[in-house]
Design brief:
Layout (H helix, E strand, L loop, with lengths): L11 H14 L15 E7 L11 E11 L7 E7 H4 L3 E4 L7 H6 L8 E6 L20 E10 L2
Antiparallel strand pairs: 1-5, 2-3, 2-4, 2-6, 5-6
Amino acid sequence: MKTRAYPPLRGWPVWMAVLVIALTGCAPQPLPPEFGRIDGIEIVDLRQGEGAPAKAGDRLRMHYRGYLYDQRAEGGRGPKFDDSHARGQPFEFVLGAGQVIRGWDEGLLGLKPGGTRLLRLGPEYGYGERGAGRAIPPGASLLFEVERVASAD
């Protein structure tokens, strides 16, 4: 059996530097300051529902639209990053179990079936300084229109 001798890797520090630069260039960039920023959480009830208010431990079914907050846009609705209506499928989760962002775990408490809310979330109530993939940049403030469809229990 013949073995093949490979030359030592020359210039590997250069290739590593190129790789690091390429990978950091792919990282999501923060939103420009003109988008603005929300501090904390703001909850606006748009329509009261009927029935038992949501509490921690309840399984909820929600329709929603998610937007990057942009203070220059009408109602603060910047680019839309997600929409359960478009998929025709509500999202199900257990409230207060850490299955969703903090703004949902806290902002949906008390919402009755059929009720709708507007959630305005600062980064600490959304995805924080890490962001989420390419759709949500680091440090982004978010705006959600949410509707509790019905109890999934």
